[in-house]
Design goal:
Blueprint (H helix, E strand, L loop, with lengths): L1 H5 L4 E4 L6 H32 L6 H24 L4 E4 H34 L4 H4 L2 H27 L8 E2 L6 H7 L5 H32 L5 H29 L9 H22 L2 H18 L5 H8 L3
Parallel strand pairs: 1-3
Antiparallel strand pairs: 1-2
Helix pairs in contact: 2-3, 2-10, 2-11, 3-4, 3-10, 4-6, 4-8, 4-9, 6-8, 8-9, 9-10
Family: Belongs to the G-protein coupled receptor 1 family.
Keywords: Cell membrane, G-protein coupled receptor, Membrane, Olfaction, Receptor, Sensory transduction, Transducer, Transmembrane, Transmembrane helix
InterPro entries: GPCR_Rhodpsn, GPCR_Rhodpsn_7TM, Olfact_rcpt, Olfactory_Receptors
């Protein structure tokens, strides 16, 4: 193919977050801990909300399962790559990573929108909630999120495969993404960058605006609710909104501008690639009594069943309860 003929680079070197040996050791330690906690937190949510908890039968927790699933697949590989001082990655692995990062990142965006829609229906149309958000509808919405994510990431990989590489192969980042790859391409990348901005950038901005509008509508409708109902709805929506801001702020910064890279880009990317998957379980469990109780019940049930050890101390530590 033309792409293969114009491409003399068979592997890339990921520069990482820093080349300072001491800083690299510190980052490796921090990222190792984040890696384990991200997997543990999302695994607990997946188990609690999908397989074992009958009390969390609402669509909100059905979508939370898929959010955690996306997080659990999104962060680990990026964290592992960031652990090494000089990480060599083959051309095909790099292209696969571009696809995976955009697939699970887009999946996270669509699931956050579905969760906002669920909250809107629950608060603004409570009498029709069970009809509108039936199991079949929720399943169809998730399938659409999968298909949409696949279309988006396929477009990204199509643009990446069009790039010819014939010279430097050091990617000034800790994972493969289109922006740093554009800097290495042996061609004028202005048009491709416009396509990236109109694809990734548009998805980020339009989704963020939709979410903001949905929260304005929800907050406006809460004025007619009782104080208790208002407090419960605000608690759930606040958790959701914190995640949205942490995720979309950095995404919009990275994907909605001309082909210029800044030194701060890599640290900004840490927020949405590593920070959000790590914080999601904390935000949803610490601020949501139902999820917290379901997780607590699952842990205690497992211990009672298998008699591994007494989790009294862990129960106090994690849930703050005697």
């Amino acid at each position: 193919t033309d792409m293969a003929m114009n491409n003399s680079v068979t592997e890339f070197i990921l520069f990482g977050l820093t080349q300072d040996a001491e800083q690299q050791k510190a980052i490796s330690g921090i990222f190792s801990i984040l890696y384990l906690l991200t997997l543990l937190g999302n695994f607990l949510i997946v188990v609690s909300t999908f397989w074992t908890s009958h009390t969390l039968g609402s669509p909100m927790y059905f979508f939370l399962f898929y959010l955690s699933f996306a997080d659990a697949n999104y962060a680990p590989r990026l964290i592992v790559d960031a652990l090494f001082q000089e990480k060599t990655i083959s051309y095909h692995e790099c292209m696969t990573q571009v696809f995976a990062v955009h697939f699970f990142g887009c999946m996270e965006i669509f699931v956050l929108i579905l969760m906002a829609f669920d909250r809107y229906v629950a608060i603004c149309k409570p009498l029709r909630y069970t009809t509108i958000m039936s199991r079949g509808v929720c399943g169809m919405l998730v399938i659409l999120a999968w298909v949409g994510s696949c279309i988006h990431s396929s477009a990204q990989i199509f643009l990446a495969l069009k790039l010819p590489f014939c010279g430097p192969n050091v990617i000034d980042h800790y994972f493969c993404d289109l922006q740093p790859l554009l800097k290495l391409a042996c061609m004028d990348t202005y048009v491709i960058n416009l396509l990236v901005v109109s694809n990734s950038g548009a998805i980020c901005v339009v989704s963020f605006m939709l979410l903001l509008i949905s929260y304005v509508v929800i907050l406006y409708s809460l004025r007619n609710h009782s104080a208790e109902g208002r407090q419960k709805a605000l608690s759930t929506c606040t958790s959701h909104f914190i995640v949205v801001v942490i995720f979309f702020g950095p995404c919009i910064f990275i994907y909605t501008r001309p082909p210029t890279t800044f030194p701060v880009d890599k640290m900004v990317a840490v927020f949405y690639t590593i920070g959000t998957p790590f914080l999601n379980p904390l935000i949803y469990t610490l601020r949501n009594a139902e999820v917290k109780n379901a997780m607590k019940k699952q842990i205690m049930t497992s211990v009672d069943k298998y008699g591994v050890f007494n989790l009294h101390f862990l129960n106090i530590l994690v849930f703050g309860q005697e």
